[in-house]
Amino acid sequence: MTATGPALEFSTTLSSSPVTPERRAEILAAPGFGTSFTDHMITAAWTPEAGWHDAGLRPYGPLSLDPATAVLHYAQSVFEGLKAYRHDDGSIWAFRPEANAARFQRSAARMALPELPVEAFVDSIDLLVGTDSEWVPTGGEASLYLRPFMFASEVFLGVRPAKHVTYSLIASPAGAYFASGVKPISIWLSSEYTRAAPGGTGAAKCAGNYAASLIAQQEAIANGCDQVCFLDALERKWVEELGGMNLYFVSADGSITTPQLTGTILEGITRDAILTLAGDLDYKVEERPVSIDEWRDGVASGEITEVFACGTAAVITPLGRLAWTGGELVMGEETGPVTREIRAALLDIQYGRAQDRRGWMHRIV
Ligand SMILES: *Cc1c(COP(=O)(O)O)cnc(C)c1O
């Protein structure tokens, strides 16, 4: 169900104390990830009676929350993640923001939150990034990371969907994920924990999924790995995804496979774009179940030549090692050629160096 209706009007209140150009230049020289924020933010309110209202751009700053605000207790909250890219000519673009808007609606519906119209979602991005355009970094793989989110803001301790909901959008300059070149990461296969069960919230980008994955991520770190990989909850046999990235397997015969969406895997927009791009590059693309035995045996026999993870933040990340209780498998010290080719093809579109044949790029400035 897609919410329609009159366009949401956004008011504008500019900051009277924006970050100085000197300080901003310092931040943009080494932005890191998720620690600095632009001068403004978007907020909008929803109630069953008024629908979406009170939408506006305002100075970035703390939200004041009553201790009984519902989200703090029952985690009725969803979010998105996408980036604004500066092209060589100075223009600024987002990658498939309508796809994020649609997923935001699906996530909201799963968590009994109201759907924000796609147009309002995209308008909020245009307004915030247009206002804070000086914050979009130049060069390399830097970008302005955009974080739309929605939460139950009703002050109420009962258990039911909130009747007051807040939408917000903040923006944070992000440096290249791999500051010193792309390096394969190591993965811990969790046998203790699962991320999502049938009928659960695995396909929704909800805050609680991340809270539930942190202990498994901690286990990965304790075992000398960078990230955790989850298997399905029923059989503990089928490969699902990492904590925040989808997976792809490259075969010696030139085919590329990703676990099919079963309701317990997050529908990544990067994953979806790669399905199309890999097809354009003449790879045979498959979505089907992949078992952990197929992964382990395939790497051992040489049938699987590369494995990579994908998501907005890190784009495409090669996997170099898979470890589990009592064993490990080395996949490669270097980024494989297919991973490199697909990574470059995607980044070339996002940074305007290749033709955007599918209208994926949305111009903001
Ligand atoms: C956001 C997310 C992804 C990646 O999605 P993109 O749209 O490609 O950024 C993958 N898995 C999980 C669990 C996620 O939350």
TrEMBL record:
Residues 10-19 have a biased composition (Polar residues). Residues 1-21 are annotated as: Disordered. Pathway: Amino-acid biosynthesis; L-isoleucine biosynthesis; L-isoleucine from 2-oxobutanoate: step 4/4; Amino-acid biosynthesis; L-valine biosynthesis; L-valine from pyruvate: step 4/4; Amino-acid biosynthesis; L-leucine biosynthesis; L-leucine from 3-methyl-2-oxobutanoate: step 4/4. The keyword DNA-binding does not apply. The keyword Nuclease does not apply. It is an enzyme of class 2 (transferase). Its cofactor is pyridoxal 5'-phosphate. This is Branched-chain-amino-acid aminotransferase.
